[in-house]
């Protein structure tokens, strides 16, 4: 069985992915256009980056946030703005919430990690009331939209390859639409969301990328010479100065009928 990516450090996650999550999450929340005072479920909340954005931007009545990683939740519970959120250890496959408890449920950068994506979507649908929203976004991994794609390519060129989530295919626009429609959701729509982030140098980008579990767990098993070769390959012809990197996510939204 392929090695799983481990999210064990909420602090390094923040710079590696939390910043990206906020950059993509802001236009995603604008697109959902949920009224203030709503009840939210943030499924796969990780270190609370998506939860904090919901609290700060969507002004909810409450947010129930759930994730299977204790380490991520420990960081999430310390976050400033997320004081209103309640964090629970658990899985998207078996949400510990009653039917119809929420106005909206989301997965931010999570669906491709869920071992049975269709069951995860069905669970979100179950816990949202009639008329409520079920939505998600995920990096377009197959289309090269992951923000550290250059390092992924360098790892593939070196013959080692990055670790990937178990279901990268669910981030395709057609798959998102199919999953949402098959779950019985209505008014299903998809879209692309891009975000840019500036790193002060290639080295800053490389160090941040190396703290991604899918990259760091692979590099940690290689010798220093091979790591340096991969670093140079990812750097390509870039020399000094700021590096602006783009990420591309695919998003989906749908409504529970009723
Ligand atoms: C890339 S992080 C996204 C975290 C957060 N939503 C954000 O926007 O930054 C992916 C998260 O999915 C979580 N995850 C993995 N398997 C899961 C499952 N079966 N149910 C819920 N979350 C899961 C991981 O623990 C990790 O925190």
CATH superfamily of the domain at 10-142 and 166-198 and 247-255: Vaccinia Virus protein VP39
The strand count comes to 7
Q: SSE order, as H and E?
A: HEHEHEEHEHHEHHHE
Tell me, rounded to a whole number, the average pLDDT: 95
Note the overall shape: globular
- The stretches of 5 or more residues where confidence is low (pLDDT under 50) are none
What are the distinct ligands in this entry?
S-adenosylmethionine
Sheet of most strands? 7 strands, mixed
Describe the structure.
It is a single chain. This protein has 258 residues and is α/β, with parallel strands linked by helices. It has helices at 10-32, 49-58, 70-78, 117-127, 149-157, 173-182, 202-210, 213-219, 224-235, and strands spanning 39-43, 62-67, 85-89, 102-108, 128-139, 186-199, 243-255. It has a domain at 10-142 and 166-198 and 247-255: Vaccinia Virus protein VP39 (Rossmann fold). Helices cover 39% and strands 24% of the residues. The protein has a 7-stranded mixed β-sheet, sandwiched between helices. It binds S-adenosylmethionine. S-adenosylmethionine binds at residues 7, 17-18, 21, 43-46, 49-50, 67-69, 72, 91-93, 108-110, 113-114.
């Amino acid at each position: 069985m392929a090695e799983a990516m481990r999210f064990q450090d909420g602090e390094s996650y923040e710079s590696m992915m939390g910043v990206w999550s906020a950059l993509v999450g802001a236009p995603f929340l604008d697109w959902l256009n949920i009224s203030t005072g709503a009840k939210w479920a943030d499924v796969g909340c990780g270190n609370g980056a998506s939860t904090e954005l919901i609290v700060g931007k969507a002004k909810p009545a409450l947010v129930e946030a759930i994730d299977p990683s204790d380490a991520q939740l420990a960081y999430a519970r310390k976050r400033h703005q997320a004081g209103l959120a309640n964090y629970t250890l658990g899985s998207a496959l078996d949400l510990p919430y009653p039917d119809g408890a929420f106005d909206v449920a989301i997965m931010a950068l999570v669906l491709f990690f869920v071992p049975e994506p269709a069951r995860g979507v069905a669970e979100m649908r179950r816990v949202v009331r009639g008329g409520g929203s079920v939505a998600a976004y995920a990096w377009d991994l197959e289309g090269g939209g992951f923000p550290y794609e250059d390092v992924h390519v360098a790892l593939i060129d070196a013959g080692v390859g990055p670790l990937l989530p178990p279901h990268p295919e669910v981030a395709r626009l057609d798959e998102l639409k199919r999953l949402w429609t098959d779950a019985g959701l209505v008014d299903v729509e998809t879209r692309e969301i891009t975000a840019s982030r500036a790193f002060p140098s290639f080295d800053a980008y490389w160090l941040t990328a190396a703290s991604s579990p899918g990259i760091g767990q692979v590099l940690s098993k290689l010798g220093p010479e091979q790591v340096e070769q991969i670093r140079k390959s990812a750097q390509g012809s870039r020399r000094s100065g700021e590096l602006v990197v783009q990420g591309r996510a695919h998003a989906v939204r749908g409504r529970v009928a009723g």
